[in-house]
Design goal:
166 residues, alpha/beta, five-stranded parallel sheet, globular
Length: 166
């Protein structure tokens, strides 16, 4: 973690798709009064489930927007949570450098999930999405494998908080 205690901070949640980041972010927000900024909520609002072609076109702009907004919130004394994955070490290092350069405190939280628990979460999520009960990405097997192959699990020394789901 960077920054002193007692000041507002940015909390970055790292984890693969469907591991429970949004659920954790919502729980953390309820407990702490922090505000959640969600990459997926913006992408789903723009593209719905048909994000495939638009994802790369919009992704970088959404990231820049969320970074700017997070700094504004922290500077106004609001703890904020970035619910967006930080799938690669490079993305985590870039986020830390971004906040460090602006004098903003941050914490990195990781959600580690067993393969069994991950499959069960994806099944429940997909059922809820198909039933219209959830505004989340439908993650079929192809997308799950694609995302899993792109996810670089963090090292323990990168994280301030480590959550394990088994």
């Amino acid at each position: 973690m960077y920054g002193g205690s007692g000041m507002a901070k940015a909390i970055l949640i790292c984890g693969k798709i469907g591991c429970g980041k949004s659920t954790y972010a919502a729980q953390l927000a309820r407990e702490s009064g922090a505000l959640v900024l969600s990459f997926d909520e913006i992408m789903l609002s723009l593209c719905g489930q048909n994000f495939k072609e638009a994802h790369d076109r919009y992704a970088e702009g959404i990231r820049r927007y969320l970074f700017r907004q997070s700094v504004e919130l922290v500077r106004h004394g609001v703890d904020m949570i970035l619910d967006w994955g930080f799938w690669t070490r490079q993305s985590r290092e870039e986020a830390k450098a971004f906040y460090r350069a602006r004098g903003v405190a941050w914490e990195l939280h990781s959600i580690e999930i067993s393969d069994r628990a991950w499959a069960a979460r994806l099944e429940r999520r997909n059922h809820a999405v198909a039933a219209g009960e959830s505004q989340a990405y439908f993650v079929d097997e192809r997308l799950a494998q694609k995302c899993a192959s792109r996810f670089a699990p963090p090292e323990r020394d990168e994280m301030d908080v480590w959550i394990t789901v088994s």
